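Journal club prep — side note

Before the paper discussion, L.F. wants everyone to see what a predicted structure for a comparable chain looks like in token form. Sequence:
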Amino acid sequence: MAEEGKRLEFELDDEDLKLFSEEAAEQIEVLDVALVQLEADADDELLQRIFRAAHTLKGSSAAIGHKKMASLTHAMESVLDALRQRRLRPSSEVVDALLNALDALRVLANEVVTRQDSGIETQSLEEELLALLENAGEEPANAGPGHGDGADFGFAAQARADIAAHRASGKSILAVSVRIRDDSPLPGIRCFQVLQELDAAGTVVATDPPRQVIEAGEADYVVRAVVAATLPPAQLQAALADISEVAGAEVREIGEDEPLGAPAPASEPRPLRPGAAPSAGEPGNAASASRRAGAGSIRIDVERLDGLMNLVGELVIDRARLIRIKDQLAAVLSGSELAELAENLEETTAHLGRITDELQDAIMRTRMLPIRSVLARLPRIVRDVATRSGKKVELVTAGEETELDRSVIEVITDPLVHILRNAVDHGIETPEERRRAGKPETGTVTVTAWNQEASIYISVKDDGRGLDFEAIRAKAVERGLVSAEAAAAAPPDEVLQYIFLPGLSTAKQVSDVSGRGVGLDIVRTNIERLNGSISVHSERGKGTEFIIQLPLTLATTKALMVVARGIVYAIPLVSVTETLPVRGADIHSVGGRRLLRLRDALLPVLELAAALGDRRPAVAEPAYIVAAQHAGRQVALLVDHVLGEQDVVVKSLGELLGARPGIGGATILGDGTLGLIVDTPSLVGGAARESRETQLARVA
């Protein structure tokens, strides 16, 4: 094993490091998703996608001098090539070996960032991969020199038939010769880059030296090849010449009547300045540059997006201030000759408001990502957990194109993975249990995402054994989390909420995957920290469903602005069900607590300012009630005034103030003062707990 912690050096600067890290993460994610799909459906397109990802990883790791990573990826590529050629079957054993190698690649890719040797051992992984080829009767790829004599391109009957088929389909058969500069310190790597460029251009029929030699980084200054391509020879020649340290490149089309023995050697290749790109006037330059730059998208640093979002937030605040100034001017100048100025200001403010809304929307869209990036990781998790627990589980996903803010994606991934693991590990039964219950041996877990109004919903549903209500009730009492009286009196829906209490689990057997219930208190806390909610529904023997509700973004929110004891509060609009005047409201006093009868429901009544810790005497009697809900429960909040709806920019309270019960943040108002954003989940949850304690006190 390598010495862990040893300092590593790679041939790349800070900019190259960033590009390598992004590309490696992207290709590893492609492999992670696609390899799991391989067992179910090994179609040609999927195999080609997997091979290309491994091929790219090998090239980039070889280019920076990460030999261990390049060697392991080369072994993976040998297996993938056998799969692609249908000489090897994608069995569970093969996929397991590839996934184990992929996990090692993650660690090796991180070594490039940390520059520290992780000490991970890869020799056994390579041997395991090559053993798969030997067991299948394959001859492992010979990466050493001397594999070919440089003259024989190996045009067997099948190769000639392939060339004829390519030509019949409209492709050009191109003879390629590339020479690397004599002073190149890494000619083998440059030859490999030439091969990658040829792969991107079309189908490489034959190479000299053989492909295995080039891929192993053992080629020596000259590469010759026959390629079936759709692009003009001049375009491919320009792309090859653009590779660093290429001294010359020659590409010409082979006519139908010309012999195929070998492409003509480039004895006098077109000279190029070392490392120089083709000039703007050369054919194919624009196309080559376009291919490298990307067709329709660019990468943007997240910090830049955050900075833009902060600037837009300031614009939103200034818009609110302008509207307030306009209203004040209109009141003061009403009927005077300056009223026209106030009217002009109103028009300008309205126009600024429209522009700010459009700009805010545009910036928000740049921060939005499809939830596909989260859902793509789930098949591997399901496969691993199901394999460990001896179960058969199928994962079904829907709504992959549903978009939400990247900041929400970062926070929601861990809770979602935790719920999914629990569903597979303790929700789905073993094949034997499912057969006895009259179910198919393979259980199903469905993850669905969708947008509704200003929220995103994520459902995780399994068709497993369901939750045992009585076991949950008994365990909550046993752990002292709920009194026996309260548990006995609790309806089923309330009993289900016990699984979110700290430390509650009904799992009969502890596994390395947390039992259903363990850690769900942390899951709920993290979700509620996003002003979201989580609910659970279950039916014994039929399955369980968790539904997560989240805001689309954490940067701004629509809120109902209210005043309580002279302070302006913003109640997230997603929590507000209705407002009504106190006068005429059906309020009763029961056991020392006030309750509002709202149609068929009884809502605890809270004076908003007092509930948030304001101990000053009230300046006026509350005039309005705001009904707010969370996780199926409601409270009635007493406030002095209702100002109306407004988009507010969410600001953190900062480290000095820290977390305050009932307060989820702050916003800057139109007059420059601070408004507090109400944390509805904590208010509703606190009211529910207080209601239960009151009931228990009456029972006692």
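L.F.'s comment for the group: Residues 139-152, 261-296, 512-518, 693-700 have pLDDT under 50 and may be disordered. Keep this in mind when we get to the figures.
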